[in-house]
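ok so i was messing around last nite and threw this chain in just to see what happens. nothing serious, just curious
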Amino acid sequence: FRGPPPPEGFPLHNQIWKYLQCTPPAESLVIPVAIADRIILLVYAHAADSGRLPDSYVEELQAMCTAAGSSFVRLIREAKEGHKPTSLVPL
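result:
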């Protein structure tokens, strides 16, 4: 979803904006992260100035969400095969 926040959701949206300490944005973006046909999480974004998001940001977020879905698939596959996830930071 990309567009003005729908009025039906204002009670929930107002709580989100309150916690984020921002004014209601002119445009918001919600992108699903999916594994196959199952949505596992939603990414919410809006412009820092509460205006319109630049198209390049939207494209980058879409690519990030696609990559996140692929990463979850890889992690699940490795877990099923008995591999422990690798860490970038030594524990």
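not much to say yet. The longest helix spans residues 55-80.
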